[in-house]
Amino acid sequence: MTIRSQPTIRTATPAHQQTISELLAEAFLHGDLADWLIPHLDARARIYPHYFALHIEHALTHGQIDMTTDAAAAAIWYPIDGEPLPDLANYPQRLTDMTGRFHPRFSALEQAIHDHHPYDQPHCYLALLAVHPDQQRRGVGSTLLRHRHDQLDATATAAYLEATGPRNRRLYARSGYQPHPAFHVLDGPPLYPMRRPSVRERGDSHRC
């Protein structure tokens, strides 16, 4: 029997921006929202690395990125405490220039996520979790989650995310996330908000 070693996790720095952008582009190229956002695969493959580079730039400024040292997986987290996060400078125009004729759907997606986000409830927000296609179904995503959840449990902090389909909903449910009512983006697929209660809410105060 082969025993897989657990990946080592580190905090990403600006030096990792391109690597993680390319990872996210590959991981989400055939994701649950991909065909709706950009129906044409060649256009999607061209736009996605630049689009996700914006997310990485924002996360390096306002959040934190956990990544495996082999760059096979990464998770973007943000602390939320009462108000939305600030945008990058000139973000609307940069998004428009980058996504071109597909911009209305990207904009609608981000607006819907913003409109449904529980900003009034302090939590850590999992914006994106990506695992390279070659490393999926090997427990790497769960390892990344456990790494962050241990920190959140130590400070009695809840977590929140939007799942995009049955597969990642099952992953997050196994990690203690509870479902909230789904919402749709225009004519696109539904998004499934999920929240992981803090240890105090769960009654696990001995873990703090």
TrEMBL record:
InterPro entries: Acyl_CoA_acyltransferase (IPR016181), GNAT_dom (IPR000182), Trichothecene_AcTrans (IPR052523). Residues 65-199 form the N-acetyltransferase domain. Transmembrane segments: none annotated. Residues 198-208 have a biased composition (Basic and acidic residues). Gene3D superfamilies: 3.40.630.30. Residues 188-208 are annotated as: Disordered. This is N-acetyltransferase domain-containing protein. It comes from Actinoplanes lobatus.
